[in-house]
Amino acid sequence: VPQDRIRNFCIIAHVDHGKSTLADRLLEFTGTVDKRDMQAQLLDQMDIERERGITIKMAAVRMAYTAKDGLEYELNLIDTPGHVDFTYEVSRSLNACEGALLVVDAAQGVEAQTLANANLAMNANLEIIPVINKIDLPAADPDRVAEEIESVLAIDATEAIPCSAKEGIGIEEILEAVVQKVPPPAGDPTKPLRALVFDSHYDGYLGVVAYVRIVDGTLKAGDKVHFIATGKEFPVSEVGTFAPRMRPAELLRAGGTGYFHAAIKSVTDARVGDTITVAGREGKAVEALPGYRPAKPMVFCGLYPHDSSDFPNLREALSKMQLNDAALSFEAESSAAMGFGFRCGFLGLLHMEIVQERLEREFNLALLATAPSVIYHVYKTDGTMEVIDNPANWPTTTTIERTEEPYVDATIIVPTDYVGAVMEMGRERRGIQDRMEYPAPGRVMLYYKLPLAEIIMDFFDQLKSRTKGYASFDYELSDYSPSPLVKVDVQVNADPVDALSFIVHRDKAFPRGKMLVEKLKEILPRQMFEIKLQAAIGGKIIAAERVSALRKNVIAKCYGGDISRKRKLLEKQKEGKKRMKQFGNVEIPQEAFMSVLKLG
Ligand code: GDP
Ligand code: MG
């Protein structure tokens, strides 16, 4: 089809407002997949994505649609990830589009991620088409939701399309609106190639499959492409489109989207957000598309195999995952308490959970994770600054002049009844309240500046439970701010247990240290000797507990009796040993260790 009949668009929504269901209906209506194949297509997706109902991997699907004007259009639906960890990826895929369907639940109204995604779409200059979904629900109130879209998002909602993705109502109206309202792509096919890499995945046979939006020029097999940011060059093996599976094509041209592969060994060589051009042309007529930045891990934790002999397997699994995940970082570390493992970096908490879960499921590894931490800036008395992502590397107290931690700008939308609960949480989490707005009757929008470290500690679950599930939440990183931070060491019989040490705001050091040693006391099995548990800052004890010794005769009784019972006991002990971790001179069961780590 000619360029003026191409439409590139995406669907943006708060989680659960119906993005995936609507995408399925569009694919069905345009005959891109038939109803029979629908299930099969869903099964192709990653397990975790389906189970959690979140979209992790983006895709672009080409649909052919004959509009009411009798002409055939090429509609490219670009999928966007729906989670705050992947904001950069969302912004990249939005840049591959000219329009966005903004889906809002007719019963729930505008939520925090509706707002965040709408802002990203406006920044990308997209034509936004509001869709009010789930009008079949008894609680649906499309008029109120239309008002909210206008007042909160400042988007004209007079032509918002009422829809039920579930019942297939409004689907044709949506496709017509895409054709009529989303502008066709600009771009000149006769100019030298310029294309945006907006996503990629790794395929065991093909190497990296890069998803591209062609801005100018054309791309075909045999072309040698040059990545502007990484400087890497590769001869293209194949180009094509997703319809919805990979389908080879002769040529991709300006305005269109599709994929190419070129025997690229790792996604780090084909970065999301990078611009490609034809080798030899770079720096001449071709300028990189704006906004590229390499994925940067923000949240770190130590990952250790339960069974220390799994260390090489863990390394191999992490390397394999990195081929497909440029945002994952790892380096080997060792800990007296945990043995050999890796310090890993992630975009955020969800990213961390996804990686852990996949390591356990797909690579069959049993893992232990230390409490997550953020990246701190430590300014030292000698004028230097250290970037610390691991409590183990925290400098000696006397060399520290001041410290900073990362903050986020958070938006919380909640029914009026729960404002008190949210504000209480804001205080507990060291939040600074910016302002408060009333987007609609009965609803409040709160803006906060919060330390990222407080958010990675169970913030979202707490918020949900304290507001009976009604609060919605979104955040973006803002900047580093001064914060008096200290490192708390945990000692068992005067030996520091490195895996339990943590960095915390000075005012919270005492309660958290106390909580940790109390918890340890509860779970540590009694030994033949007394165990001293202490939390300390730079050698100064801030909390202490004792686990008293077992009396001798208890042990004696245990070991008496006939020989077979004794052997059984020994065997059991041996089995137990495997799952023990050494705490100073005290061995404790793995499970106990886990429960301490969960405290964060
Ligand atoms: P996503 O998180 O935005 O991708 O949302 P999903 O498409 O996964 O939908 C979330 C839930 O809402 C699912 O249980 C859907 O079946 C349901 N849902 C989606 N669209 C509709 C609709 O139009 N009406 C009703 N009643 N439920 C819907
Ligand atoms: Mg979905």
UniProtKB/TrEMBL annotation:
Function, as annotated, reads: Required for accurate and efficient protein synthesis under certain stress conditions. May act as a fidelity factor of the translation reaction, by catalyzing a one-codon backward translocation of tRNAs on improperly translocated ribosomes. Back-translocation proceeds from a post-translocation (POST) complex to a pre-translocation (PRE) complex, thus giving elongation factor G a second chance to translocate the tRNAs correctly. Binds to ribosomes in a GTP-dependent manner.
Positions of GTP binding: D16, H17, G18, K19, S20, T21, N133, K134, I135, D136
Give the family this protein belongs to, as stated in its UniProt record: Belongs to the GTP-binding elongation factor family. LepA subfamily.
InterPro entries, per this entry?
EF-4, EFG_III/V, EFG_V-like, EFTu-like_2, G_TR_CS, LepA_C_sf, LepA_CTD, LepA_IV
Keywords of the record, alphabetical order, are: Cell membrane, GTP-binding, Hydrolase, Membrane, Nucleotide-binding, Protein biosynthesis
Report whether Cell inner membrane shows up as a keyword of the record.
no
Compartments where located? Cell membrane
Please indicate which superkingdom the organism of origin belongs to: Bacteria
Q: Which GO terms describe its biological process?
A: positive regulation of translation
Protein name (database record):
Elongation factor 4
GO cellular component entries? plasma membrane
Catalyzed reactions: GTP + H2O = GDP + phosphate + H(+)
Question: Which species does the entry assign this protein to?
Answer: Armatimonas rosea
Q: Which PANTHER family match?
A: TRANSLATION FACTOR GUF1 HOMOLOG, CHLOROPLASTIC, TRANSLATION FACTOR GUF1-RELATED
Bilayer topology annotation: Peripheral membrane protein
The molecular function terms in GO held by this entry are: GTP binding; GTPase activity; ribosome binding; translation elongation factor activity
Looking up Gene3D superfamilies in the UniProt record yields: 3.30.70.240, Elongation factor 4, C-terminal domain (3.30.70.2570), Elongation Factor G (Translational Gtpase), domain 3 (3.30.70.870), P-loop containing nucleotide triphosphate hydrolases (3.40.50.300), Translation factors (2.40.30.10)
Give the EC number. 3.6.5.n1
| Annotated ranges, domain Tr-type G | 4-186
Taxonomic lineage: Bacteria, Bacillati, Armatimonadota, Armatimonadia, Armatimonadales
